[in-house]
């Protein structure tokens, strides 16, 4: 199957291809042996958040501590 790359570097995948891999909003893109390889990535919002927290080395207890601190801190007025 053919797919055309536009002047804006956009590529429309043929419907048969997208149906074969199922719904995916994001694709991992890599070049291997002169070929572009697209791998569907199914990211759920919570998964993305967990990945970012892990990247920042933030643990569940850190979040619980921050929430507890925020709940006991009186609100400030913004003028």
UniProtKB/TrEMBL annotation:
Molecular function (Gene Ontology), one example: DNA binding
Domain of life: Bacteria
SUPFAM superfamilies for the chain: AbrB/MazE/MraZ-like
This protein's name: SpoVT-AbrB domain-containing protein
Organism listed in the record: Gloeobacter kilaueensis (strain ATCC BAA-2537 / CCAP 1431/1 / ULC 316 / JS1)
Sequence ranges assigned to domain SpoVT-AbrB in this UniProt record: 3-46
């Amino acid at each position: 199957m053919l797919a055309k790359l536009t002047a804006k570097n956009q590529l429309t995948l043929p419907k048969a291809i997208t149906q074969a891999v199922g719904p995916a909003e994001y694709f991992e893109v890599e070049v291997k042996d002169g070929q572009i390889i697209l791998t569907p990535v199914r990211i759920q919002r919570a998964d993305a958040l967990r990945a970012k927290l892990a990247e920042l080395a933030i643990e569940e207890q850190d979040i619980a501590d921050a929430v507890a601190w925020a709940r006991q801190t009186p609100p400030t007025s913004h003028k």
